[in-house]
Amino acid sequence: ISADWGEKTQCFYYATGPFSDNRATTESDFVGDLYSYLSEYHLEELDYWIDRIKSCDFSANTDRLVFSVPGYHHSTRMSKFGHPSLARLLKERPAPKKGARQLFIVQCSSIGVLGDNGKAWLLDQLLNSLQGGKSRDLGVFGGIPKIFL
Q1: Around Cβ 60, how many Cβ atoms within 10 Å?
Q2: Which H or E element spans position 88?
């Protein structure tokens, strides 16, 4: 879906990290996520920025980037992008206490293509991913969560 690269991609994240000569100390999940996202563009113009990012020390940054890229994904690439990636990352974390307040901020540029019946995709897909794919029990959210689109 080549047109989507020009029309449906966006990302903004602000983080700082000092330049480092020792790349072995700068490897982190955050850098891996950012490198993976930028590499999906397959643009030579980004090589300079990818190299600069790899030369920064982001070891103090424990954030993770969850991103989508256009296309149809199969097999191992299926859990690399979008809400399936979120489910994979959350599955690795301990389950929150039942009823604990949680905040998820989700930005979906192409949410209109999901259809006007929220139950068709929201409950079956997105909420399952927000629970790390572990449970269909909405009790972990204290009932059906408030969602603003």
Answers
A1: 11
A2: helix 82-91
The C-alpha atoms of residue 139 and residue 119 are separated, in whole angstroms, by: 17
Nearest-angstrom CA–CA distance, 69 and 36: 11
Residue at a domain's end among 36, 54, 72: 54
What range defines the domain where residue 10 resides?
2-54
Tokens of 85: 């990636």
State the total domains in the chain: 2
Residue 115 sits at φ, ψ, to 5 deg, of 100, 165
Q: What is the pLDDT along the chain (149 residues), one digit of tens a residue?
A: 566 666 665 666 777 778 877 654 557 888 888 888 888 888 898 899 888 888 888 888 888 888 887 777 788 887 888 878 888 888 887 777 777 776 666 666 665 566 666 666 666 677 777 777 766 555 555 555 555 55
Q: In terms of pTM, does the model score above 0.90? A: no
